[in-house]
Structure formats: C-alpha cells, structure tokens
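Final report, section 2: Outcomes. Of the targets proposed, Lipid A biosynthesis acyltransferase is the one most frequently requested by collaborating groups, and we therefore present its record in full.
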Amino acid sequence: MDKQPKHWSTITETGTVVGMRILLMCYRLFGHKGFRLLLAPVILYFYFRKHATRAASKEYLQKIAPFLPEHKRKKLTPFRHFWMFGEVLLDKFLVWMGKIKPQDVVFETPDTFQKIEASKLGGIIVVSHLGNTEICSALAHQLPNIKVTMLVYTQHAQKFNKMLQRTNANATINLIQVTDMSPATAMILSERVAAGEFVVIAGDRTPVNNGGRVSIVDFLGAQAALPQGAFILASLLRCPVYLMFCLKQDSAYHIYMETFSEKLSFARKEREQKLEEAVTLYAKRLEYYCQLAPLQWFNFFPFWHVESKDQQALINNSDA
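The predicted structure is given below as tokens.
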C-alpha cells in the first residue's frame, strides 16, 4: 500500500523560529542588500535538503502553469518559488518593525474598506497562504476602529507570536490558538463579531483534528480538499464574509478585499449544498489571485493528494 501523504500540520514549516531569528539579525546588521546576499545560501540549503518541499513546489507550479501566459510560465521554477518565500519573509519583518511606508501600499478595493468602516459591523475575513497575510493583519490594526482576531493553529501560533514580540515589543495582535472549533471558542468569536470586531481565518488549510469538515473541489484543474470552517462559522454568526489577499506586485504591496457574502445563512436541509457552493466559490477566487502572483503560493505540502472526504479524514487522523 502506498504511504498516505502527511497532513500539513505534521510537516515542519520551512521557516523555523531559529531560522527567522538568524535572517532578522542579518537584516538588522547588513540591511536589505546584505539580507538578500545572505538569503541565497539559506535558500540553496532548503532547496537541496527539503526534497518533499521542493516536490510540493514543483507540483503546484505544474498546476498553475496552464493558467498563465507563456511569458510568465518561463519564470515558474522551484528555486524562484523558494526565493520568493525568503523575500516575503523579510516583508513580514518589515511590516511589524513599522518600516512599511504608506506609499508602499496600494489598496486595490478602497470602496470595500470604506464600506466596512462605515457599517460598524463585525465579520469574518478569509485569508490564505498566498501572498503576505501578516501585512494585511498589521495594516488592519492601523485602521481606525478596526479590531482583528486571528485564528491560528497551536503548533505554529506560539512560534509566530514570539517572533512578533522580538521584532517589535509594541506589536500586538489578538491570537486564538485552535485545533478545532469548540463551543467555547465559538462563543468568544460570536461576542467579538457582535462587538464589531473581525475574525481572520485561513481558508486553504484543512482542520488539524476535524477531518470531516472539508469540501473536495476543483482547484487549478485538479481535486483538492479545502476546509468549510470559515463558512460554517460565518453561518453560525450570521455575519458578513470578506476575502482578503496581499500580493507583492511591482515592489508595492497590493491589498485586495472583496465581499464574499453580506450574510451567510441557510436552512438546515440545504446546509451541505450551500457549504459546497461557498467552498467552490472560494476556490475560484483563490485560483484567480494565484494567477496574479503565481510564485507567492506558500503551501509547501502535497496539496492535491486527496481523493475523497474519507481519505482526507484518514490523513488527518494518521500519525504516519
């Protein structure tokens, strides 16, 4: 029997806290140019040593290639993909160090941001591991009257939080560490949304413990499992749902935010169908933004190696 692919949460992240500390120290000592010089051997190390990560990169690039014009396909190499990861890692440091200038940020959908501020209503913001989510979150904290709570998985949350504190002691962000959605967590989130706050949740990684809450949808021409969690939560809270992406384009950070649903609510008998439709629509929007920045996809694991919900549940609960 073929070995089942590991669930993403069992795979060590490419960027560890120790590695990030070293790179951050390099930036502080040598600046941007020095950082880029020292980044090269680090990227080369991961490129040649992390075979599974390189294979995942190659698989993704093969999937996205048919969706791109010929001149963009030539730039699709795993090494460029790894290099972009390092560049975006530096961007994460810069935003939390307060070094991102207003002129470096382009709000592609200003009407949506103005609408959110004017409505005074809370909601769900669905993000992904495409582009630089940290920039979106940090900028959201700088917008007047906007409070954000990020849902993050326990094994990565502590590392991320420590890194932020070391980067900037004044950088605060509300984190809730979850492996599944308990009634207590749902109650906390309900109270925050009712108070006009926003809950940020990734829509492109399947649950750590709750393997059944996924939809198998078409993504970049193949079947992939995407979580229903964000949309289940939104339906329970009966609140607006937004999609947010931050992509680096032409040396600037372009933030896209679009309304996914004014209120995601449906009857019990049509629940599964509506959830499938919501996840399918999300997959299409994610697919669209992947085409805008194809090298900024940072899910370095076997993303398409799922054929059914039963198989996904098996993978999620496997120790292998």
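The chain has one domain: 8-316.
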